[in-house]
Here is the input.
Amino acid sequence: MTISIYVLLIIAGCFLITWIIRVSPFIFLAKLEFPSYVIKWLEFVPVCLFTALIVEGMLNQEDKVGYILNLESIVVAIPTLVIAIISRSLTITVLAGIVMMAIVRMFI
Here is the structure.
């Protein structure tokens, strides 16, 4: 497989733009002092994003009519939620969810 210089430049440009967009806010915002209410509000952002990803994964779109629940995801979500409440660790929760989903997919 060969790669042209044009494709290589496009890949490098996409990398650079993506990196700038994702890293620059951290560089600029690291020097600012936020009020306590903003810090408190920002603590909820990871939980909201994680919840949105999980709920989206638990729904399957049927045609253009509506959504149905994904049984595999429901079976895995309940014990994963319990693990999340007990451990309060995103890493442990994600790893447990992945392992449980693998086990469920082996049998369903």
Observations:
- The chain has a mean pLDDT of 87.
- The first strand starts at residue 59 and ends at 62.
- The two ends are 39 Å apart (CA to CA).
- The chain is about 75% helix and 5% strand.
